[in-house]
């Protein structure tokens, strides 16, 4: 029966990353202490991380801690989707499509989302970014991308 | 006097029109983001880095530094007026500052904060000017072993000062070091942890990590607690402190400046620790201790002086040793590298105009802030009222475009999204992500120094304790670690973070 979920899950994550680092580093050459190969430092760190993770997991069964609390799944998913969609669209469809989508999907994560304000914000930010970043700073992003014949 | 010559050179650099202009922009933006809750200096600096790449290095660094100490000022304004610390270092200011505002003495509280900060900033500027060069001279003697131990000390300090479980913080640091190693190995050219992804060959950009963890991660965290924020702005009245107030301010300002300056130099803390310590000490030694928590001007003056002094002196390790002491200076190290400046003890001799220009600009920036704060208070108050749901889509846009513009790579945009999740999940699990960024930047440097030290010692690991400076640094690191395990200290640490 575990009492400290924060310790438990963090520990598992650390073990996962530590062991992954150790496993992957086995493909690189270790070298010697005086002439360290590319695997030397990562191996030390990976082992250290795995040990820290193991201690955290063991500790989670002994101590009691506060519960995790609700994850903001909706906010996390929408923010991530909004940013990924922007990355996916910015070159091909252009800023005029990618940016409003980023703003609207992102804004939808808020409990106070309203279509009217979101659309106005999207329009305002798109014009602002087109003027400042593309015309002003010359960042190579198309306003209308090749997908739309730009 | 050599010191005066140096400061004069600094003035010549800092007082050029464009440097003054960007210094002003920096402190203005800094104050604004300090006022806006939910947007901190780390995220802002990360967002603005790509923009500063077009500026000359001195100008860029002057502006970035301005954002940092400007945010301390803005943070205190919201603490006093609406009881919301816009920034972590001004948390204690809410205790007495907001009480004063409720009693109709908001003006006096704001003045105490502004004047205390300005005095502290002035002293700290001279401290940097006085102690920077000798410290850099010492650091020039450092070999790889010393640098390695110094970085260990820096990381240990950031772990000790991080919020939450010590074990989690150590883990986060080790993970950050590992992430820093992604990409081509400098010595052998071997591709490490790249999973055959071509974009990872050069490693992960620190701006991508910072914007993901602090920009996006912070947005998700804020959305989780949405709606808990109701803003009530107190009327500003009693604009100037009374003679009695001034008398009561002097000693706390002096003590706050001293404490803040010393604690600011410590790696990992920056200005946060100083403001807590100054408040705690003032509460013990003050004649008016009974008034604390009910609107004592000492309770505003001391922590405000301390956090500004600390914000300034935290540049000492950055400028003289090239070791960042908090996420903000970690970003500045990154900015220097992008501009082709290798941060370290040689900067002071090789780029005197940059070094001294930056120091003097900090003083000028503080002067701007004192002058700015009064006439613009109306704007700040209106900014506090901007609801978060209107603000965060804009932050999202700046993060996305900022990261894209670094290398015109959509891959970095995806990576930033991933680090947003990482930042949020780790903070939910009780492992603050700030030390991770520090470790991420130090990772490759640490490996390099470890390699060189071990090469010189022919594989003898005792070299780190046989060399006196290196050994001293490691002893400090061990002491810092032990101090957390001593119950008395860990209790204060808990209490300080809870308040």
Description:
The complex is a heterodimer of chains A (150) and B (499). Chain A has two domains: 5-62; 73-148, no CATH class. Chain A contains five helices and no strands. Chain A has helices at 5-25, 40-62, 73-89, 95-107, 115-136. The mean pLDDT of chain A is 88. Chain B is built from 23 helices and two strands. In chain B, strands 1-2 form a two-stranded antiparallel ribbon. In chain B, strand 1 and strand 2 form a beta hairpin. Classes of the chains: A mainly alpha (150), B mainly alpha (499). The interface between A and B is large, with 70 and 66 residues.
Number of helices of chain A: 5
Beta-strand content of chain B: under 5%
Count interface residues per chain for the largest interface.
A-B, 70 and 66 residues
Topology as H/E string of chain A?
HHHHH
User: How many discrete structural domains of chain A?
Assistant: 2
N- and C-termini, Cα separation of chain A: 60 Å
Shape of chain B: globular
Spans of chain A of at least 5 consecutive residues whose pLDDT stays below 50 are: none
User: What oligomeric state do these chains adopt?
Assistant: heterodimer
Report the span from N to C terminus of chain B.
Answer: 46 Å
Order of helices and strands of chain B: HHHHHHHHEEHHHHHHHHHHHHHHH
Content-based structural category of chain A: mainly alpha
Mean pLDDT over the full residue set of chain B:
83
**Helix content percent band of chain B:** over 70%
Q: Biggest sheet of chain B, open or closed, and with what strands and sense?
A: 2 strands, antiparallel
Please give a quick description of this structure.
The complex is a heterodimer of chains A (150) and B (499). With 150 residues, chain A is mainly α. Chain A has 5 helices and no strands.
Give the tags:
heterodimer, A: mainly alpha, 2 domains, 5 helices, 64% helix, B: 499 residues, mainly alpha, two-stranded antiparallel ribbon, 23 helices, 74% helix
């Amino acid at each position: 029966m575990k009492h400290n979920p924060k310790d438990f899950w963090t520990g598992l994550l650390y073990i996962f990353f530590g062991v992954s680092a150790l496993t992957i580093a086995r493909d690189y050459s270790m070298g010697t202490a005086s002439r360290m190969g590319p695997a030397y430092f990562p191996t030390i760190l990976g082992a250290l991380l795995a040990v820290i993770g193991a201690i955290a997991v063991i500790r989670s069964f002994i101590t009691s801690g506060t519960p995790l609390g609700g994850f903001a799944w909706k906010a996390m998913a929408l923010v991530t989707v909004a940013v990924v969609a922007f990355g996916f669209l910015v070159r091909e469809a252009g800023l005029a499509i990618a940016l409003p989508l980023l703003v609207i999907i992102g804004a939808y994560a808020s409990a106070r989302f309203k279509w009217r304000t979101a659309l106005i914000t999207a329009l305002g930010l798109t014009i602002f970014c087109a003027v400042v970043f593309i015309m002003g700073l010359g960042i190579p992003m198309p306003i209308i991308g090749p997908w739309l014949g730009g | 006097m050599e010191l005066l010559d140096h400061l004069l050179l600094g003035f010549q650099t800092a007082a050029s029109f464009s440097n003054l202009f960007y210094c002003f922009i920096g402190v203005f933006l800094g104050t604004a983001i300090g006022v806006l809750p939910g947007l901190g200096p780390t995220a802002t600096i990360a967002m603005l880095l790509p923009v500063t790449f077009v500026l000359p290095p001195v100008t860029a660094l002057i502006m970035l530094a301005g954002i940092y100490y400007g945010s301390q000022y803005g943070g205190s304004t919201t603490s006093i007026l609406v009881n919301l610390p816009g920034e972590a270092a001004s948390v204690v200011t809410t205790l007495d500052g907001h009480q004063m505002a409720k009693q109709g003495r908001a003006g006096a509280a704001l003045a105490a904060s502004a004047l205390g900060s300005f005095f502290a900033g002035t002293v700290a500027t001279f401290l940097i000017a006085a102690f920077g060069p000798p410290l850099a001279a010492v650091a020039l003697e450092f070999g790889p072993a010393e640098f390695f131990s110094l970085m260990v000390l820096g990381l240990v300090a950031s772990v000790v000062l991080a919020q939450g479980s010590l074990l989690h913080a150590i883990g986060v640091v080790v993970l950050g070091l590992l992430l820093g190693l992604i990409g081509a190995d400098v010595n052998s050219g071997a591709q490490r942890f790249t999973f055959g992804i071509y974009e990872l060959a050069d490693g992960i950009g620190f701006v991508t990590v910072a914007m993901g963890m602090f920009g996006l991660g912070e947005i998700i965290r804020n959305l989780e607690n949405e709606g808990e924020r109701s803003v009530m702005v107190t009327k500003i009245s009693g604009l100037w402190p009374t003679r009695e107030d001034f008398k009561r301010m002097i000693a706390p300002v002096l003590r706050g400046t001293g404490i803040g300056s010393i604690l600011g130099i410590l790696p990992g803390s920056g200005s946060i620790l100083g403001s807590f310590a100054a408040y705690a000490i003032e509460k013990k030694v003050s004649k008016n201790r009974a008034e604390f928590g009910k609107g004592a001007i000492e309770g505003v003056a001391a922590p405000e002086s301390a956090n500004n002094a600390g914000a300034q002196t935290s540049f000492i390790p950055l400028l003289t040793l090239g070791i960042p002491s908090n996420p903000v200076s970690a970003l500045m190290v990154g900015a220097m590298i992008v501009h082709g400046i290798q941060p370290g003890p040689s900067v002071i001799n090789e780029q005197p105009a940059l070094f001294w220009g930056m120091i003097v600009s900090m003083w000028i920036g503080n002067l701007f802030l004192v002058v700015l704060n009064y006439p613009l208070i109306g704007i700040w108050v209106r900014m506090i009222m901007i609801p978060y749901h209107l603000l965060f889509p804009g932050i999202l846009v700046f993060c996305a475009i900022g990261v894209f513009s670094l290398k015109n790579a959509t891959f970095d945009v995806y990576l930033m999204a991933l680090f947003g999740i990482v930042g949020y999940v780790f903070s939910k699990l009780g492992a603050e992500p700030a030390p991770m960024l520090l470790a991420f930047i130090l990772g490759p440097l640490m490996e390099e120094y470890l390699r060189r030290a071990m090469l010189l010692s022919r594989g003898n690991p005792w070299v780190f304790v046989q060399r006196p400076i290196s050994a001293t640094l490691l002893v400090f690191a061990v002491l810092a670690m032990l101090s957390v395990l001593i119950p008395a200290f860990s209790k204060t640490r808990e209490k300080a973070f809870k308040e």
